[in-house]
């Protein structure tokens, strides 16, 4: 018997899930923003009591937090300095010289995390091949250290040009500063993100340095506090890339904790996909402010090395800070239950990204909110029962929803409240569908063949309609969807990813050099994973990011390297080429004959085996039909018609039972809408499976 | 179908069209070769109805291209009426007078067939890395020196590639693989867009785009006219003088506001130049409408309807309506100043919605190395042609500072120094903000940047200079001062000309200091705390704080209130 505990600190709630073998206990408590570890302790105690366990019984704890993300969004990190190559003080301020919005003359650009007066240059220069063009002027570091000390700098990022090829100057600088400023934390761009492109690499290094002191202290306190209540098991951290790691690694590279909660959600969807044996999945997580979409193939969430945090302008690409870290690849748009609907200059309905949040919240809450939100539209369209919302803890007022919708949307357009609600719902669903479609196409995949796995409070209300818009035939709403991220933590492997830029022409691949590189990456990743998984069998994957010479965007290709020997040999270039060509053709239709291929970046991941999910046998169709709890009027967005829909309590449903649409299946945290064009059945694992007729 | 659901569906499809063209743009970016497209985003992608009306444009792209392609498709339809097109046809041109004003931009148009009938067109315009001739320089004296002209032709007819055309292009450009590869990347972008458009029509059960097009165009036009009707009618004049190549050039605009139209006429503008900085009317129209739109109706989607009420004319033979065989390769240097020109006229009506002048013209670092420029240099010589996109500062805004080292009006992205150094034998020794280059004002102009570039191991190279604002810096507004002018010189001291091909001798370096944007409002009214912060960050020197802003600072960098009061009262 193993007892595993997962805690996910979100913006509003701290979710806890406790797994004792197959038995799951879960709870939610409000996040305590002043001292997040307090909420962790409270929630942990609650769930342990419920399960009748003591802290000493816990074998492993996995922890994910939005703290790093919030520090970046709210700009509440440490006073941070940067040491940069002389002549390049402004790489993080000049960015890519682009305006992310074409027509708005009043946009603001994302402010660098480190102000210019604390970005200090040192004379040194290394070229693109790693040759030293100018040695480092070590004496200059003394006055730099003096400035940092005088300014109260707690953390320093060191970022020199071409350090991804030759990190020696960054390393030397770190050694000197460590002597001069023993209490200051140091981040090397060549360690946190050893990849070409100075703006992205330095932005990542700055972000790591910026969050490091606070995260480090928080984790230290958490470890102490947990020990204080008797929890003595290893603490592991959820990473943005979907693996878990040790506290030591998290303290060194805290930027890798960004968006670890949503990553847990994607892992959760991945495990549901494996459980149901579905290879081709899109996960759809919709909460109060945003919706997140992730592609999951063969149970594995798609990953990426590009991410932008703290977007400040309608979630627009380019309006945030770029991070080059391993992440689960998600698109996030400002579409949640609290998203506010309004009319644009052309009298068109627009939804979000502004959200009514929980205070005052949607008009229906009766807390003084007068804006019409997506939740208000869902109330008016009959999807949410005003008397049974959030497990009956919050009584909703549909009259207020109708008034807000009529006032803000309907009347100017000559529609009634229902017409307005339908418009709001259709636009927000279209926005999410478009984001999902563009993301899928960018990944070179077809959207129609996917299964949609929906979780988060608002997703089951909209999932079937989004499936219709995307041409998807099946929707799955898993149980425990309300604490999906925390459950996902329990199902994540111990894993660590390392990347390096090593620019090579495939036709002239340096075989010895490549093996040397892979070996050094392996040496870096393996101890990190071993620390979290001392005895388990480890898997290794290697991905090379390649492109036709002259192109600017690379395609990641998993390298066909013999697993036992794990070395590159004379035959490898031809094998790599053919792997690249088939991946390129899959993405873009056809390759380009006669053009050589080059490798830019190598990524090596070491991980424990992804915990196996038992393939749940499909439940045989039950002879009995479930008993509705009642009926309500439900508007179908496809036809605009109002029909009478049966309502069911999800807890009453048994495996194998069928629920024909139109119907609404209610559970404490959410409700699943089954439109007339769908039928739902209950799977053996308690999943609701909606199939289009 | 009419009623609320019909209206909702139309608006949903409108959103969808924008996603369709964005997919088109992303597909071609990811498969293209030219730095200009894949890194810099120097492109446009759009969807058109049967009549050639632009319905939606991709979010990614530049205004010069997008508003040019909006006009260009009409020329394609004039030569090849849509009912004569076949499935599998792909049309191409790079004619400056039909498209976006220079040979480097290739426009690809693909008809979309639904139920065996052409229902619309996908089009894109993108900048390729080379098109032959002298290369990307203003030194040409006739269009014939500026490389290959491709009239409107079939790149593919009924699915069959026009191999004759491909062979001719291949033999006439410097980087044949890249250019030809790009043409097919652009065509496949259109294919992606067309597939998505067809899927949308199936989903919503429509057989043509006419109803949807009318809805998009009518509502966009009406909303634009509504905004125009809120402006005081009349004719407003503004002139911008710029360096030019062989002599200064004046851009003279008369902007007339009528209840339902804004017309910009450029009568009085300088005649054509003998060098390749001239602008065709299509491109003049593109940047003029863009400038007006940013101020008057920035939030209304850009399409044929919103463009219709903004009209443009320029005298034939003037530098803004140049005729064959004048050279045009670097037409953007002038084109990029047109928004400033019309914004200066609009400033007389709505001073609180306009910005000060900026560096505006994109400042590409276009370098060439190799035997043709090495002279008697005896070290290693590498053949290369390299372009690095750069920008100065934008003009200050009525309530905000300008943006430093950021492109306006161009919409392109810069390229990382590390990426450029990895492919070209050069070393950047400096690329950072240029202190005191932002025009002083209550709100400060954006800073330009200063770059210092040498050849690897001292190798000589040429710069194909294409810079403006050296003699005529960006002017401030409402009492704001001008930004710093462009400067170009050798590290050894010799000043270079802002335009034209020139040598960087062995061991020397090129220093290029880009212009800053103009300030907005009286600098003596700038919050002294902001001035102190600017000094602490090194954006402004302590001397400029004193001289221009009337702000005195204590030795620790905080504001000397009494000293500042004295300085400011003195004026």
Question: How would you explain this protein's 3D organization?
Answer:
The complex is a heterodimer of chains A (693) and B (571). Chain A is α+β, with helices and mostly antiparallel strands. Among the domains of chain A are: 3-72 and 217-257, 2-Layer Sandwich (Nucleotidyltransferase, domain 5); 77-197, no CATH class; 497-608; 630-692, no CATH class. Chain A has 16 helices and 35 strands. In chain A, helix 10 (374-380) packs across helix 11 (398-413), helix 10 (374-380) crosses helix 12 (417-442) and helix 12 packs across helix 13 (459-470). The longest helix of chain A is centred in the N-terminal third of the chain and has 31 residues, at 198-228. The mean pLDDT of chain A is 89. Chain B has 571 residues and is of the alpha+beta class. In chain B, 31% of the residues lie in helices and 20% in strands. Chain B has three domains: 4-221, no CATH class; 355-526, no CATH class; 528-570, no CATH class. Chain B has helices spanning 4-31, 35-38, 63-79, 163-170, 176-204, 210-229, 281-296, 304-307, 332-335, 338-346, 371-374, 417-423, 528-537, 542-547, 561-570, and strands spanning 43-49, 54-57, 90-93, 105-114, 117-127, 153-157, 160-161, 234-242, 249-258, 261-265, 310-313, 365-369, 384-388, 426-433, 449-455, 461-466, 487-490, 499-504, 509-513. In chain B, the strands form four sheets. A seven-stranded antiparallel β-sheet of chain B has the order 2-1-5-4-3-6-7, with helices on both faces. Chain B has a four-stranded mixed β-sheet with strand order 8-9-10-11. The radius of gyration of chain B is 25 Å and the shape is globular. Chain B has 15 helices and 19 strands. Chain B starts with a helix and ends with a helix.
